[in-house]
């Protein structure tokens, strides 16, 4: 412990202030697969975050679906705006516990890198297409992106992120479910991510920030799209209580402000609940280092039991009334066709991918044709997938 440290906290350096003893410390990072000289101005976790933000995969999130396809309106969330919102919440939660905010932000910013075009629809189709070739999982695909598919640096493929950022990416929702994707298992032969253990608390809080962000902001988008109404939200205990609070204080509020007041209060209520419950968990487990967080055998960054029940009810409501709304399902069927058609045509004739993707096949630098095609498709934006389909087929769904 440094001379400046106080009980329970330790200085992180680079002007970062003091951190909780159970935080992840960049000065104690388990390092990168390819050694690099330390930066004189940034911690290792700051460098990870910056590399993620400057990556091609990050920019592509701008035109990838969250719920509504990107052409349906400028005000709906995309994967990019959702990711930025998750990062804001993750950073706030990390600050509340004196954790490494840069690491929490890095995990939040990278967590959706593996998503296909057209949201979970594209992932489901690609997983079905890859059923006999190792399947498709967006978390495993994100690992492929940051360790193999981003090719910007002279000394290595990928972004050469630290162990802590990679283990947070792979395990932010807990240890990977069986069967563990081959991508994760193969990477662990190079750098063991200890997938049987929990991730650090920064990653755990990034994961629950994802839940908070899409629960609140999907309501905002649903109201804007007309798929949800305030009366429908009164069928859910959590949003009914908040609407009563808003309407009691602002009885003449217009719908736009009424919706914003509802979602901002919902976010605040969830964030404050996570802070209270996570502190209770920490007080009970009493971790003395990040190693104790890994070995706790449970997720410490969590909702309270009461909030978890309310959140499950809200999710069930959203699935029934928004994510499975007939208009969304109709577009989902059209999006499935686009992804399935593209997979089949590129698998049958990989040269039609063109550019570097065809060149890598010629040089035999790929695991298999199917995985190569899946990498290509997963990296597409909604707009590029539709453009490629129009190039290759006589008829392309409008997705409107």
From TrEMBL:
SMART domains cross-referenced by the UniProt entry: HDc (SM00471)
Q: Does the keyword Hydrolase apply?
A: yes
Q: Name one GO molecular function term.
A: dGTPase activity
Domain of life, source organism = Bacteria
Asked if the Swiss-Prot or TrEMBL record annotates the protein with the keyword Signal, the reply is no
In the record, biological process GO terms are: dGTP catabolic process
- List keywords of the entry alphabetically: Hydrolase
Q: Where is the HD domain?
A: 79-215
Pfam hit, one: HD_assoc
Q: Which InterPro entries match?
A: dGTPase (IPR006261), dGTPase-like (IPR050135), dNTPase_2 (IPR023023), HD/PDEase_dom (IPR003607), HD_domain (IPR006674), PHydrolase_assoc_dom (IPR026875)
Family of this protein: Belongs to the dGTPase family. Type 2 subfamily.
Kindly give the HAMAP family that the UniProt entry links to this protein.
Answer: dGTPase_type2 (MF_01212)
Name of the featured protein = Deoxyguanosinetriphosphate triphosphohydrolase-like protein
Lineage of origin: Bacteria, Pseudomonadati, Pseudomonadota, Alphaproteobacteria, Hyphomicrobiales
